[in-house]
Amino acid sequence: MFKCPNCTGSLIFDIKTQKMRCLSCGSVMDPEEYHNSESLRLNNADTGTDAYGVMVSLCPNCGAEIISPDTSVTGFCSYCRAEVVMQKRMDGEKRPQYIIPLQITKEECKRQFMKSMHAPFIPKDFKDDRFLEGFRGFYIPYWLYDVRCRKTESAPEHTEKYLLRIADKLDGRTSTVLYDAAMHFDDRIANEIAPFRTEEVRPFAEEYLAGFYADRADVKAGVYKQDIETKAAEELKNSVTTSLLDSNEYNQRIRSGISELIRIDVEPYTALFPVWFLTWRRKDRVAYAVMNGQTGKITFNAPVDTKKMMLWIIILACILFFVFENIPPVLPKYVLAIVSNICSVILFLVRRETAKLYVSSFRTEDKAYTAGKTNVPDTGKILSSKAFRLLLVFIPAWLLIPIYGPSIICAVSAILSLFMFISITELSIPMHQVSVIIGTLLLLISEAAAYYISYMDYVESIYSFSGSGIVLAAALVTCFLIVHQCNLISTKPIPNYTNRKGGNNSAKND
């Protein structure tokens, strides 16, 4: 859509030079000069001054819509990585007000990504240069909120003078807050690649998109406005706390008084911010690696290669076998108590990973996704780490062994495991994670058997060692469930955006 004035070849935005470069003759020119030159601009979509012409590529597999001012062929979908022929149509896209152009090249992106890949169990694809060529330059729509403090025109009667002086100093104070405006762009990813240097924004010109892609805005500004006003008011109150030496009562009086003298104005603006986007797909799951295209900050939850992990487990088992062969023997009952103790910790880990999967699956932390929905679970309660404090009961339990014997440890382990099993089941049922429920149930039953063996005080060590073997076997199954849960957390189902709306139908200031 952008033609070279010298040879009519295609122009793209060159990241290194931050100029428009012709793919045919190599001539360069400034994007804003090109944008302002009506004789050169050929992006003539007749959609009004508030919109610009784009080619919309629709994935027939997942329904994702990718926009670009170019008519170049899209070889695969960035969201589901399906290599399909994208359905194309010309359309008008609501013109954002600002943009931060890409500042990191693909080669630099690949180098930084490779440096960050230190995990031993990641799939080999992520170290394959051909796969990393799949990184795409992408622009994500954001809402840019200008938060400004305004002194009220009339102060309440009998307002103390020192409060008026503080209000005068705060009058006009500004800050900038940003939230992504694409519903399916996970808020977790947006938070992890933040911040963007918003002082480097430029007036939007579609020439910056030449050769790259953008997502469509489909989140309204009002979704975040209330949260921003509340947060800004709280930060304002905290900022006027004069000193730690002052009394809490005095500081509280200042905060209360200032809230009556200052109002918070929030003005939203639309912007496009750059990222490099890579999609990995295995069967019906996808994982995303996303890099901030301005700062180079990366977020990536790597799935675990189960075969690699099995090899490491075998090596670790051989090392432990050698260690236990060369230390003095441990009483069988104590082995059973130790194993039961370990299994309780494993169940706590299963519960934690199941909670993370629940939050990830239902996106309970994503404000844009949950906007307008009812009965959204409290993410804080789901991810609460308070349950781990229950493990502290093992400290007095071990101290009571001289009185009650090792069976006290097995009893405590079985009781705690029962509570964890109930919590895991409650989280797993809505996600249809039957295998997790069965696996944790097997571990619970084996812990109950361990307690029975320990309580009955069988003299023969064969019973204790057999019980320990059963519990360890169940623990091994549960460990693989943890790996399975981690892989589900780090990946997502093939997305479905068939019913989403974009363009001029969304992203309004309401």
Characterization of this structure:
It is a single chain. The protein is built from 16 helices and 15 strands. It is an alpha+beta fold. The chain folds into 3 domains: 11-98, no CATH class; 106-303, no CATH class; 306-490, no CATH class. Strands 4, 5, 6, 7, 8, 9, 10, 11, 12, 13, 14 and 15 form a 12-stranded mixed sheet that branches. It has a 3-stranded antiparallel sheet with strand order 1-2-3. Helix 15 runs antiparallel to helix 16. The longest helix has 31 residues, at 332-362. The protein starts with 10 loop residues before the first strand and ends in a 17-residue tail after the last strand.
Uncertain residue ranges? 42-48, 242-247, 499-510
Annotation, overall tally of beta strands: 15
- β content, as a range? 15-25%
| Radius of gyration, taken over Cα atoms and rounded to an integer in Å | 29 Å
Q: How many helices does DSSP assign?
A: 16
Largest sheet: 12 strands, mixed
The chain-level mean pLDDT equals: 75
Indicate how many domains the architecture comprises. 3
Structural class computed from helices and strand pairing? alpha+beta
Query: What fraction, in percent, of the residue positions are helical?
Result: 40-55%
3D shape: elongated
Distance between the termini: 32 Å
